[in-house]
Write a structure and sequence with these properties.
The protein is an alpha/beta fold. The protein contains 17 helices and eight strands. It is a multi-pass membrane protein.
C-alpha cells in the first residue's frame, strides 16, 4: 500500500475514533438534557449514526473501491483494439465462406473449410500476435527461439531437420499487452520427400504469421530470396535475421549486412535487417572454456518497436488475409466442382451432336440440329453456374457462337483436323457422315468449353470478346495428345457402333436413329419443332 494511502487510512481511523468518543460524550450529555423528551433524543441519535455510517462508507469507497474501478477503466483504455474496418471485412468474408461451403459436395473439403473458418474466428476473438521463425534447417532457428524465450525449446546444434513440426511457445515482451506466440518451423530446402513435406508445412505457417523472422546464416541465396519475395507479395511483414554473427569479423559482418540490405531492398526495410548470435561459439580464456551469452538484444528492441507501432495493424491485416485466402479456396473448390459438372454436360452433348449429324442426310438440317443441341447445352451449363437461362436466350447464344465458328474458319479447320486424325487412326477412306458426325462432336465441344468460360466469368466474354474465347478453346483442343484421345473415343462411341467407317445403307437408318434417340429424349420435342420450323422456311425459300 502506498504511503499516501496509509497516512489517509491512519487519519481516517483517528477521525473515526475521535468521532466515536465525541459521540459517546455527546450522547451522554444529551441523554441527561433530553431526558424529558425521549422521542427527540431517539431521532437525534439516528441522525448521528447515519452520518457516521456515511462517513465510514465514504472512507472504504475511497480506499478500496475507487482504486479498483479506476484501474479497470485504465486497463480498458489501454486494451489494444484491432482496426474495426478490417475486422468487419474479415467477418463478412467468413460469413460468405460459410454460405459457399453449403454448395461444396466434397464432405472432406467442406469440413476442412468449416474448421479453418472457426480457427480464424477464434484468432479474431483472441487477437494473439503470432511470430513465426522461418529459414533453412542450419540457420539456427531453434537456437534463436531458445534465446528469445530464455529456456530450451528444442534440440540445438544437431543436424539439419531438427524441428519436424511447428512448435509454439509463449513469449513475454515488456510493454506489450497481447499474448505473443513464437512458432518455430521446420527448415526449408531440405532433401528428400520428408524434407519437402516439412517445407510445405513451414511455408503454410509462414503465410499465417503476423510477423516473420526470416533467419539466415550467411548472405542471401536465390533459393532463400524466392520464398521471402513470395511472402512479401502477399503482405507478410518480415525481419531478416543474420544469425551466427559471432563467426564473422566486425568489418566482414558490416559488409554482409550491407549486401543483405541491398538484396532485400523493396521487400524489407534496412532497419529490419538485424545481426544476432543466438548460440555463440564457446571461447577459451586462460585455459578455461567459456560460453558467451546470446547477443539478441538488437532483435528484441526492433521486435518491440515494430509490435508497439504496428501490432494491431499486423493482426488485422493477417486475419483479413487469412479470411480472403479461405474465401479464394472456397471459390476455387466450387469452380472446380462446377467445371466438372459442366464438362460432363459438354461430353454428353458432343456425342449427341455426333449421333444427330450421322443420321441426318441434309446439310441444312445438320446446322439446325446442331444449333438446337447447343441451345439446350447452354441452358444446362447455365443452371450449373446458377444462371437461369431460357431456351430463347440459349438459342441466341448458340447461333451467335456458331456464326463466330464459321467466320473464324474453325468449322472448316475442324473438319480437316478430324478427317486427318480419323484416317490416321483407321486408315483408308471414310464415309462423309463419319467425318461430319465426329466434326460436329468436336465443334460442340469447343462451343461447350467456350460457354463454360462465359458462365465462369459471370456471363462476360472478357476484353477479347467471344472471338478470343473461341480461338483459345480451339487451340487448346487441337493438341496432338487431346486429338488422339478424342478420336479414340469417337471411334468407340460413334463410328464402330454405327458402322460409319464404311458406306451405310438406308436400311441401317432406323438402327442409327435408335442409337441417338435415348440421349435426345431430354429435348426431343423441342428439336423436332425447331427442325420442322426451319425446314418449312428452307422449302419456301
Amino acid at each position: 500500500m502506498r504511503l499516501s494511502r496509509l497516512l489517509t487510512l491512519i487519519a481516517g481511523l483517528a477521525l473515526i475514533l475521535g468521532l466515536v468518543i465525541w459521540l459517546i460524550d455527546a450522547l451522554t450529555r444529551l441523554s441527561w438534557q433530553l431526558y424529558a423528551y425521549p422521542l427527540l433524543s431517539q431521532l437525534l441519535l439516528v441522525l448521528i449514526m447515519t452520518l457516521l455510517a456515511v462517513l465510514i462508507g465514504a472512507l472504504i469507497y475511497y480506499l478500496f473501491v475507487l482504486p479498483r474501478a479506476s484501474k479497470r477503466r485504465q486497463q480498458a483504455r489501454r486494451q489494444p483494439r484491432v482496426p474495426a474496418e478490417k475486422t468487419e471485412a474479415a467477418e463478412e468474408t467468413l460469413k460468405a465462406v460459410r454460405q459457399q461451403v453449403s454448395q461444396i459436395q466434397d464432405e472432406v473439403a467442406r469440413q476442412e473449410l468449416l474448421l479453418r473458418s472457426r480457427e480464424i474466428e477464434q484468432n479474431l476473438a483472441r487477437g494473439n500476435l503470432q511470430i513465426v521463425v522461418f529459414g533453412t534447417g542450419s540457420a539456427g532457428k531453434t537456437s534463436l527461439v531458445n534465446a528469445l524465450i530464455g529456456r530450451m525449446a528444442g534440440k540445438v546444434g544437431a543436424a539439419m531437420g531438427t524441428t519436424e513440426v511447428g512448435e509454439t511457445y509463449s513469449l513475454k515482451l515488456k510493454g506489450l499487452l497481447r499474448e505473443i506466440l513464437l512458432i518455430d518451423t521446420p527448415g526449408i530446402l531440405e532433401a528428400g520427400v520428408a524434407g519437402t513435406e516439412r517445407e510445405q508445412l513451414a511455408r503454410q505457417l509462414a503465410t499465417e504469421a503476423d510477423l516473420l523472422l526470416f533467419v539466415l546464416d550467411n548472405d542471401l541465396r536465390q533459393s532463400e530470396y524466392d520464398p521471402l519475395q513470395t511472402l512479401a507479395e502477399i503482405g507478410k511483414r518480415s525481419l531478416v535475421i543474420l544469425n551466427k554473427s559471432d563467426l564473422y569479423r566486425e568489418e566482414d559482418l558490416g559488409l554482409i549486412l550491407a549486401r543483405l540490405q541491398a538484396r532485400v531492398r523493396g521487400l524489407v526495410a534496412p532497419a529490419d535487417v538485424i545481426a544476432t548470435a543466438a548460440n555463440p561459439a564457446a571461447i577459451v580464456v586462460d585455459g578455461e572454456t567459456l560460453q558467451p551469452d546470446p547477443d539478441i538484444m538488437p532483435l528484441i528492441r526492433r521486435m518491440v518497436a515494430v509490435l508497439r507501432a504496428e501490432g494491431e495493424d499486423l493482426i488485422a491485416d493477417n486475419i483479413l488475409l487469412q479470411s480472403q485466402r479461405l474465401g479464394e479456396k472456397a471459390r476455387y473448390l466450387i469452380d472446380a466442382q462446377r467445371r466438372r459438372q459442366a464438362e460432363k454436360i459438354v461430353d454428353r452433348f458432343q456425342w449427341i451432336s455426333a449421333g444427330v449429324i450421322a443420321v441426318t442426310p441434309l446439310p441444312v438440317v445438320d446446322l439446325l440440329a446442331t444449333a438446337a443441341i447447343n441451345a439446350q447445352m447452354v441452358v444446362e451449363i447455365g443452371r450449373v453456374y446458377g444462371c437461369d437461362i431460357n431456351m430463347e436466350r440459349g438459342r441466341e447464344l448458340a447461333l451467335s457462337l456458331g456464326k463466330t465458328l464459321v467466320s473464324l474458319g474453325i468449322v472448316k479447320g475442324a473438319m480437316t483436323l478430324v478427317a486427318t486424325a480419323l484416317e490416321f487412326s483407321l486408315g483408308g477412306m471414310l464415309a462423309g457422315r463419319a467425318i461430319q458426325g465426329v466434326s460436329a462432336a468436336y465443334l460442340t465441344r469447343i462451343a461447350g468449353k467456350s460457354f463454360i468460360e462465359y458462365f465462369r466469368h459471370n456471363q462476360e466474354w472478357g476484353d477479347g470478346g467471344m472471338t478470343e474465347v473461341v480461338q483459345r478453346q480451339f487451340q487448346l483442343n487441337r493438341k496432338d495428345e487431346f486429338m488422339r484421345a478424342f478420336v479414340q473415343q469417337a471411334i468407340t462411341r460413334v463410328i464402330k457402333p454405327l458402322n460409319l467407317d464404311r458406306d451405310s445403307s438406308d436400311t441401317q437408318a432406323p438402327v442409327l436413329l435408335t442409337e441417338v434417340r435415348l440421349p435426345l429424349e431430354l429435348k426431343a420435342e423441342l428439336l423436332k419443332a425447331e427442325l420442322d420450323s426451319e425446314l418449312d422456311d428452307w422449302h419456301r425459300s
